[in-house]
Amino acid sequence: MAENKLKLTGVHKRFGSKTVLNGINLDVPKGKSVVVIGGSGTGKSVMLKCVLGIIRPDSGSILVDGKDVMRMDTEAREETLRKFGMLFQGGALFDSLPVWENVAFGLIQGKKMKRRAAKEIAVATLAKVGLGAEVAELYPAELSGGMQKRVALARAIATEPEIIFFDEPTTGLDPIMADVINDLIVERVQDLGATTLTITHDMASARKIADYIAMIYKGEIIWYGPKEDVDHSGNDYVDQFIHGRAEGPIQMEVLKP
Amino acid sequence: MNIFAAVGRVVLTLLAETGRLSLFIWMGVSHLVRPPFYWRIIGQQMMRIGYFSLPVVALTAFFTGGVLALQIYYGGSQFNSESIVATIVALGITRELGPVLGGLMVAGRASAAIAAELGTMRVTEQIDALSTLSTNPYKYLVVPRLMAAIITLPALVFIGDVIGIFGGFVVGTQSLDFNSGVYVKTTVDFLQLDDVTSGLIKASVFGFIIAIMGCFHGFNSKGGAQGVGRATTNAVVTASILILAANYVMTSLLFSS
What we know:
The complex is a heterodimer of chains A (257) and B (257).
Chain A: E1 4-15, E2 18-29, E3 33-37, H1 44-52, E4 59-64, E5 67-68, H2 74-81, E6 84-87, H3 99-109, H4 115-128, H5 145-157, E7 163-167, H6 175-192, E8 195-200, H7 203-209, E9 212-217, E10 220-226, H8 236-243
Parallel strand pairs in A: 3-8, 3-9, 6-7, 7-8
Antiparallel strand pairs in A: 1-2, 1-4, 4-5, 9-10
Chain B: H1 3-32, H2 39-49, H3 54-74, H4 81-123, H5 126-132, H6 137-174, H7 180-190, H8 193-219, H9 224-255
């Protein structure tokens, strides 16, 4: 296996009395795509936010290119974070900025690029996700859900990051648009040669995007392997999840009538 | 019900909130004095907080000056009323009513708008997105609003002072038949630079309070639309209370000698 671009070891996080991450161990090889599947509330988004420093874990280590981000000073951590791009579940586009400025944001703020040059790159990046130049001057509220997701994808890749996170990239989209997003993710990531970590509960998306699949359950990674092995994992939890069965070892909290 | 537990819970919650606010103020102030500065955003916020608050501050000041003139006159100072009314209107507006009422009106307007905007950004993950795009949220969101409020509130209050004294003049000369020349001369004779500057110093502090409470409650929004609504209300209420408390403290400090 290639060297790890990202390595999580024993990562714990609690909110009050609720344990969300219960010792996460996850390797993300360089240049590969790892998809983490799991039900709602299993800690997937919290795990991503711990890596990005948005949430501070209680314990454990998070290595990026072999260096522990939790032990870095602020400047070193900010420098490391420049390697990352992220596509948020809801897009998280900035309402007060036009589309081109959303896409160019990381170029202008992070790379100190001049606005005109950044705008040219933004328009070119929008074209890579299938959006024309006429969209550049619109505001996020004027776009459909699918277009917003594509703009968010463009923003995530505009700075040509080494590591890209995708937080439920197809949630809320119709099946056709979801497949369009999946294809765009595969193409653009291949183009960049980036390492990616995706969290989703959309199995169609997982199968298309992933090189490796990991399943998270109650704050722990309970299975990890190549995507081809997920259908015969030998793990009853994985089996129940990927086939979408209500019956099985995973018990969802549902109020009985 | 255990009364001690209930009281203890309230006290602990208050202490925790005070601690969170203190840390937030420290973060805001520490970034206020360190580059980079987002001058375009500071300019935009000066327009929103300052320029667009002019009408409400002007109207408040005008009617306050007029009412003050009436109240002093009808309150029993009918002997030598021209100099008494003119003096008290000038001193009352510049030292107290201008900064306090101006601050409260701007708190209702600007603090609410800041909390709503930042609260919406929080619940839609836009603030998290800033962190992933090499941008410090305190620098990008809080500092411009702090700087804009600290600069524009004194300007607003100064304009309010002029309009408020003019309001008193209008009522005095039109309704109470004062001699306009005597009114103006008395105002100029009794009004001192310290009276005006004390009001402007208060205005600057009130501007800080307005911006920091709007930003604090917006940053800490949670729970979707209801949470944003709650943040907006709390921002206005806490800013208003702190303005009144700070006014008392500053009046003691500025006028004790």
